[in-house]
Design goal:
The protein is an alpha+beta fold. The protein has one domain. Helices cover 29% and strands 30% of the residues. It contains 3 helices and 4 strands; from the N terminus they run αββββαα. Strands 2-1-4-3 form a 4-stranded mixed beta sheet, with no helix packed on it. It comes from Paenibacillus agilis.
Length: 70
């Protein structure tokens, strides 16, 4: 899985959060996927508020931080 890209095209676009299902500023995202887009143009990810609240997003984030995948 390819996540978290710092390229300028992803860093400044709004991101569709999988948790709250809203478009959020890129600065508020914890996870931002390089593959998968909402309506073809908006990157999919997870905002800082939703990541800890949704078990699957928190598990993915913890796996990425620690390098231990379940």
């Amino acid at each position: 899985m390819d996540v978290s890209d710092s390229s300028p095209s992803l860093a400044h676009n709004p991101v569709y959060c999988l948790g709250c299902q809203e478009r959020v500023p890129a600065e508020r995202t914890v996870l931002q996927f390089r593959t998968g887009f909402y309506k073809g143009q908006i990157p999919i990810g997870s905002c800082d508020r939703c990541t800890p609240e949704h078990a699957i997003l928190a598990q993915l984030w913890n796996s990425l931080k620690t390098g231990h995948f379940y």
